[in-house]
Design a protein that fits this description.
about 350 residues; alpha/beta; Rossmann fold; 7-stranded parallel β-sheet; 5-stranded parallel β-sheet; 12 helices; 12 strands; about 35% helix; about 15% strand; binds nicotinamide-adenine-dinucleotide
Length: about 350
């Protein structure tokens, strides 16, 4: 693939101020960078001017209709600056001869550590304690937690993030069960026990989701799986919102079956996350209901958000684009989707 110098431009969608900082800082190949705050969708493709590359994030819409428009605009590369790619129609990209790349592992630790931060916050209620002492309320009533040591943590998906999370959980002295479509002997040596999905649901005091969103995993947490779980189970989702059937989880919380819920991702997050809506009337009743529970912690897709991760994201994204432009290939096969 040879591209004229004037088309060596990357149009970024869904950008935040920190994206500009990191991508400008690590632009060692001298690409021309065009940043838009707006999401990529059928209406916003028009913003692309003489750029052969678009750089997108988790909530950009990259379906067949958008891909067709991108091809008409002469875009050659869709560079995802994230790991998950459930928002991209890869078949359509193939059909229209577009290359698609991603950042397969920028900082698995960032997400794994955030999952553990959610567990600790929900358990020890440090968010409530912080506010309470500022009001000079030094009472402990309502802040009772439990020892993590000796508890059973069930992990669904043991790729880069699930593996890093398992190490943290083992460090806390937890019994770690895992389910994945492939078992990992190295993790077994470390003390992780690979079991069936049903065993995870039945035995986990805490269940943490680290698998991708696909046809097999959509709504993996649903009415039936919740029915199998321990009373007062804690569910943590730092992966993708679509893994959880929101209505069933709300029911589980109302019944007290789910004792704690920590979510960094939400099925309808594209209308909410990464925006300041503090003056708006939120129309999404499900997220409002979720946020009204005292035992639910919502963060707005921030698990990846560390300096180390943003540095890696910028470096790997530029490296992927450079390799595709010069060699039409990427050495790290996990980075090249089409
Ligand atoms: P990965 O590709 O390294 O690992 C995914 C694992 O899931 C693999 O081991 C795979 O075998 C397993 N898997 C696939 N299908 C499965 C199924 N049906 N049941 C059980 N396991 C299955 O990915 P990763 O880097 O560990 O990331 C995991 C997910 O985390 C991503 O898909 C992404 O959606 C999410 N993520 C979220 C954030 C955030 O900021 N919240 C950041 C990065 C990634």
């Amino acid at each position: 693939m040879t591209l004229a110098a004037e088309t060596n431009k990357i149009t970024f969608f869904s950008t935040q101020p920190y994206d500009k900082v990191f991508f400008n800082k690590y632009n060692e190949f001298g690409f021309e960078l065009d940043f838009y705050e707006t999401q990529l969708n059928q209406q916003t493709v028009i913003l692309i001017e003489n750029a052969s590359i678009v750089c997108v994030f988790v909530n950009d819409i990259v379906n067949e209709a958008v891909i067709k428009q991108l091809a008409e605009k002469n875009v050659k590369i869709i560079a995802l600056r994230c790991a998950g790619f459930n928002n991209v129609d890869l078949e359509a990209a193939k059909k229209y001869n577009l290359k698609v790349c991603r950042v397969p592992a920028y900082s698995p630790q960032a997400v794994a550590e955030h999952a553990m931060a959610m567990i600790l916050t929900l358990n020890r209620k440090t968010h409530k304690a912080y506010n309470r002492v500022r009001e000079q309320n030094f009472s402990l009533n309502g802040l009772l937690g439990f020892d993590l040591f000796g508890k059973t943590i069930g992990i669904i998906g043991t790729g880069n993030i699930g593996k890093a999370f398992a190490k943290i959980a083992l460090g806390f002295g937890c019994k770690v069960l895992a389910y994945d479509i492939v078992t990992n002997p190295e993790m077994e040596k470390d003390g992780v026990e690979f079991v069936s999905l049903e065993t995870i649901f039945k035995s986990g005091d805490i269940i943490s989701l680290h698998c991708p969103l696909n046809e097999q995993t959509k709504h993996i947490i649903n009415e039936k799986s919740i029915a199998l779980m321990e009373e007062h189970v804690m569910i943590i989702n730092t992966s993708r919102g679509g893994l959880i059937e929101t209505a069933s989880v709300i029911e589980g919380l109302k019944e007290g079956k789910i004792g704690y819920l920590g979510i960094d991702v939400y099925e309808q997050e594209e209308k909410l996350f990464f925006k300041d809506l503090s003056e708006d009337i939120i129309q999404d009743d499900a997220i409002q209901r979720l946020m009204s529970f005292p035992n639910v912690l919502v963060t707005a897709h921030q698990a990846f958000f560390t300096t180390e991760a943003l540095t890696q994201i910028a470096l790997v994204t530029f490296g992927n684009i450079k390799s595709l432009l010069s060699e039409n290939d990427i050495e790290n096969k996990r980075a090249l989707l089409v």
